[in-house]
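ASSEMBLY PREDICTION REQUEST
Request ID: AP-0331
Submitted by: J.K., bench scientist
Number of chains: two
Total residues: 576
Priority: normal
Notes: Please return the full assembly, not individual chains.
Input sequences:
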Amino acid sequence: MKRTLVAFGALILLAGLPLFAQAQEDSGLDYFGGLHKKGSQIISLTTGAEIPLFILPADAQATESTPLGIGASFSLNYQYFIANRLTIGGSLCGAFNTTVGGRTLFIAPVSAKLAYWWGRQPIEYSASLDLGASVLRLSGNGMITPFAKLGGGAFYQLSEAWSLGAMVYGWLIPELHFGTYADLTRYGTFLEISLGAVYHF
Amino acid sequence: MKLNRHAIAALALLAAAAALTLAGCDNTYGVFHEIQTEKAQVGTDQFKNATVKALGEDDANYFAVMAKVFYRAKAGGTWTVLPVGTAQDTAYYCAGFAFDSSNAIYVAAADSASATALKGIFTRSSSASGWTRMDSGEFAGKKVDALYYVKDTLFVEAHTDAESGSAYYLYYWTGAAFAGAGLSSLSLPIQGMAYGGSKYFAMTNSVIYASASNNGFSASATSTPGSGEVLCGLASDHSGNVLATTAGGGLYTWNGAAWSSATVKSGIKLGALAEVPKVPAGASYSLLISKHDSTYGYYEYDIGASAPRLGSASDAVFVPTSSNYTTAIYEKPVQAVYYSASMKTILIALAAQGTDGYALYSNAYSTSWGGWTAE
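STATUS: Completed
Returned structure:
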């Protein structure tokens, strides 16, 4: 429960970032030194913690309140500015979490990304939505599921091309089953807290 | 309509993606459901990343054999090294362990450093009794490999080593001393013994020897089922039938007159087996049969059924959730299974090296089977 509250708090803080940024941004007309202008591109690498939040619906046979441990995540992202501040792109992610039974859950989402970038040098911000599919693997068995990821981050510009920052994302993984196995359908949620490097070009 | 190269490439990619998607999906397997139903297993340190090779019980204790014999009270408690012999020796290597239905246990204790020099074969008649040494030089020059208690007789398998190869011998307890049971200088070790249909059976991995008496074995008196089979496990069931598993997935049954065959799972190597009532003390039984396919673990198999159940199957009898089997048993070779009728409890011995898991689990029945719990 405590972990869930922390997660919601982080998401609320994240949601408030645009307001904070607008207050900081005087004109923003240079679009972060031109880096957020239409035609620019971004490649970013992230790595961080993957915090399991909850799996719904609850299982009547469950005996452990937190069957998944905190794991690790990483991602490689590409974004292209289709308009000033607005990007589309793609993302390859991976995450590992160990279970109380000693197994490892592997999640490998591939998703399309829509993001909004703003900021005033040297701080830039982004909020993004990823939609795609994810491979779930456990003990040699697995599923391919829909995947959604929502969140954002703040980055400090180190040079004209490079920024370093931190991000918070919420992950939603609907594991859908059909027919006689529909009762196996679950919705898994995770919180990703990560550090990342952004390369503008 | 003519497709250009780009369209063909895109279609090929889409087809590959669709194939991957279908191949990656198992609608019957709930990943998050599995995780939700997992249970933390905290067992005894001695059994972590270890191998338990045999199991047993007497009137008050369970026994698990590793390099030494460990025991704990059936009523509960911690697993402790069993002191053996009149000297209450705990510095020994267990070369063999057996028990009978009247609460006696038998331990072949070897030197703990060499694991071969025999300290003695000891017995005690119950948990409250003292130890008695049984051997008196019968195994000089030989190395004891295993003890078997079959019907009413304790058997000992021993071997000698030579450059030309090892030679294996079977002894039986006459009541006063160990004497040859009729099998000597065998080129293969005996891997299992059982009694059924008024016969004693001793199995190597290619031959089953049969004898109407405990000392009447002969190298020429064989009762080997099939042709060219690799034999892996031998046991008897509640009806007095003898069962033998094979490396090809077969199960042979001796009904007192002849062997019959069944296929448990073609092409899958089977191993140790034991019969357990589905509901204690009912009349319906399943066999738990060790298997080695892409993983390890066991099958549940009802004699006469066309196919076995995976230990994790949704209709598996002995686990409440598939995650219980998968986290406890799935990736470990099963060494032995023992059912304690008095405690309505199954013990399973595993080879758990490198798994970061435990080598010994129990599964108790109350109103249903509770699932595997690390000992």
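REVIEWER COMMENTS: Chain A touches chain B through 37 residues (CB under 8 Å).
SIGN-OFF: pending second reviewer
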